[in-house]
Amino acid sequence: MSTKIISAMMLMGSVLLPVTAMAEDTAPVINAGDTAWMLISTALVMLMTPGLAIFYAGMARKKNVLGTIMHSFFILCLISVQWVLWGYSLAFGPDIGGVIGGIKYLGLNDVGQEPNGTIPHLVFMMFQGMFAVITVALITGAVAERIKFSAVVLFSILWATFVYAPLCHWVWGGGWMQKIGVLDFAGGLVVHISAGVSALVAAIVIGKRRGYPKEYMPPHNLSLTVIGMGLLWFGWFGFNAGSALAANGIAANAFVTTNTAAAMAAITWVFIEWMHRGKPTTLGAISGAVAGLGTITPASGFVGTASSLIIGLAAGALCYWAVSVLKPKLGYDDSLDVFGIHGVGGTLGTISAGLFASVGATGLFFGNPAQLIKQLIGVAVTVALAGFGTYIILKVVDAVAGLRVSQDEEVEGLDLSQHGESGYIL
Length: 426
What we know:
By secondary structure, the chain is mainly α. The chain has one domain (31-418): Ammonium transporter AmtB like domains (Ammonium transporter fold). 70% of the residues lie in helices and 2% in strands. The chain contains 15 helices and 4 strands. The protein has helices spanning 3-26, 32-59, 65-92, 121-139, 149-172, 176-180, 188-206, 222-241, 249-277, 282-296, 305-330, 338-356, 369-400, 407-412, 414-419; strands spanning 95-96, 100-101, 115-116, 119-120. A two-stranded antiparallel ribbon has the order 1-2. The radius of gyration is 24 Å and the shape is globular. The chain starts with a helix and ends in a 7-residue tail after the last helix.
């Protein structure tokens, strides 16, 4: 082979090598650190649902403790399967008109170890599935102590399919809200507003507990509720910081703003309660923390620490008002204050993202008033979908299985009437 030919081949190689290397660099590559963080975050979010079960159970009366736990625990199992079979595909399948995902991923077809960003597709799927689980479980707190278990099962499947999946697609799966630039870092619209509004509708449709509000119905075991709150706060770091989908600075920012807002909201709730009722309570402290966590969720990756303090303060004050003033005034029986904390907090947090966003996006206070309009559109549409969708689903469930236990079963308690067991054997 002549020297000229060898030189020409070497020249071609030197030209093509950077192009090949560049193509390899731009191809999705799984990152071990990101994958490890997302596996941990997924486990943290999963832990939130058993934590929610304990949190709710402590606030129920002792005759309903296992019935209340069963709601959340069974939903963890039920929606995990629904998500694998069709929920994930409807939420994250190929976009159809900005409205719903296609059927490509039914039964996790074509969902495997291939990269989705910098993590395996299966990890992304599982992380999102844990969000679907806890969103459905949140709703049950509003109708605790009087809903049939069969109604919970049927409602959960229908709601996850016809309310959660489309909304999730709109916001995170390539749907129309994502396309117009609505901000929801970790679930203000998808999780908290949808669950909170649905909880309010369910509480109104199913009706008040027997004896409410004349009969005093205090939490039967606040120590249990505090343990549940600890698990929720712990899991929320995976919920919010994990929504960065990578082990990076955005995750670190969300981690800090999440903790800061929760702490500030708890302090605010306690001091307002102290002034309003004369004594600070443990229930008030943990309620304030949950309000702060839910409120910061949609904004956690978009705002700075100083803004998270303001958001936490507003969350503690507004959610306290919703639970202590608005609820008694309107007279609805949201047993465990799902709407007053998650619905109101999620709305405040979603709007706050449009005001305070300064990390990766900008809100009104940082020169982008258009973002606030987008957030308001997102809130209005989410309220409409969750409200009307839940009402229709409840009517279907009532016609098929009935929604409410009988008066005798309610007096006896859901533990015995629905499950044939008791949380306390004396």
